Amino acid sequence: MSDGGLVRRQYGGQSGGHELKICITKNFGEIFGKMFGDKALELVKELKRAMEGTVPPYNEDLIRQVLEEMKILFEQNQREVALTVEGETGLFSGVHLRHASLERNKRCLLSYIYNRMLRMKDLRWEFGTVLPEDIKYNLCEQEVQWFTKYNKSLATYMRTVGLDLTQDMKPPKSLYIEVRCLEDYGEFETEDGTVLLLKKNSQHFLPRSHCEHLIRQGILEHIL
């Protein structure tokens, strides 16, 4: 028996011989066990493998492949559902299998997008309104737009309550801290109007609330 061929088996009976044709698909187990849903699952695994506090590159190519697979599955189901209406009841199992694959792909895609969004939200609280370039480079256009809108929503809320929620993410031990500048930043004005020149390797004694964002962005480091 060759793969992809027809297996012909004769069944005898009072009404005479009947020929049953069974189509054997090559590597059936591989196609149904590995192809359907595997690409979508790889997206989830890819995100899980990424380090905490980072957002891996948006895998547009793999997402497109998953969507193409879903389109094929949907079109096949549309054709076979039309045939079942005409009485072809033997197609139900295939329809159910493809529908389950569609649902699995959808869940994986939504999980991928949603968990990337959660990571971006955490980064907003860690780095402030400006994301590091290496992280921003990994986002798609829609994710950058979402991050901008989240920034605006958070800023609007903080103005409403009159409190900067991004300050003092950890309970401060003192109001002033000593910091070292890690790069040439230029002039920096504190809330009381004092202007400082932040040059690489310069050290300053500043209110924690004034420099916390610069510490998160990697411009200053807290000297312990």
Features:
two-stranded antiparallel ribbon, GINS_bundle-like_dom_sf, GINS_A, 224 residues, Methane Monooxygenase Hydroxylase, Chain G, domain 1, 7 helices, disordered N terminus, alpha+beta, three-stranded antiparallel beta sheet, 52% helix
Tell me what the structure shows.
This protein has helices spanning 28-35, 38-49, 60-85, 92-127, 133-136, 141-161, 208-216, and strands spanning 6-11, 18-23, 176-181, 186-189, 195-198, 203-207, 220-222. It is elongated. The protein has two domains: 34-161, Methane Monooxygenase Hydroxylase, Chain G, domain 1, CATH 1.20.58; 176-222, Ribosomal Protein L9, domain 1. Strands 6-3-7 form a three-stranded antiparallel β-sheet, covered by helices on one side. Strands 1-2 form a two-stranded antiparallel sheet. Strands 4-5 form a two-stranded antiparallel ribbon. It has seven helices and seven strands, in the order E-E-H-H-H-H-H-H-E-E-E-E-H-E. It is α+β, with helices and mostly antiparallel strands and 224 residues long. Helices cover 52% and strands 15% of the residues.
